[in-house]
Amino acid sequence: MRIGILTVSDKGARGEREDRSGPAIREMMAGAGAEVAQTGIVPDEEDTIKAVLVRWSDEGLDLILTTGGTGFSPRDRTPEATKAVIEREAPGLAEAMRRAGMERTPTAMLSRAVAGIRKRTLIVNLPGSERAVRENLAVILPALPHGLEVLAGRAAECGRAAHDPGGEGKRAKP
User: Fold this and answer.
1) Can you tell me the distance from the alpha carbon of 119 to that of 87, in angstroms, rounded to the nearest whole number?
2) What is the pTM for the complete model shown?
């Protein structure tokens, strides 16, 4: 899986803050066997974020993970940029991250993160803090390989459970 990691941070883009969340994503995804093909740090500017998402998806990345810009601050525009470039939403990913986060802190429900598909690229918004990135990515990471295989057209059946390779446990059609 070829991925891109985009950190969205005004201070990070100006060199005033060390990016810790992007390297955390890189570490976790390398452990999952991903090839990090692109990385970048951009300011919280919607047009700039959109341009990178479009360019990287047009280059054929399988997955783009953004970090930052998903909160309530007026400068937090990552979800808007993502929604502007995706063709189909994948709401279950953001819902799973919020649900798991709320088990640790009630403020997780304030996340405006979204996930969706542009062409054959999955784009997922993650929070900006290193701890939250690690927690959120751990929630969705088990589902990503299969989802990306289906998106790329390399997986034959979505409904067949991994523990049921022959499909014997599938419900009979009425």
Assistant:
1) 7
2) 0.89
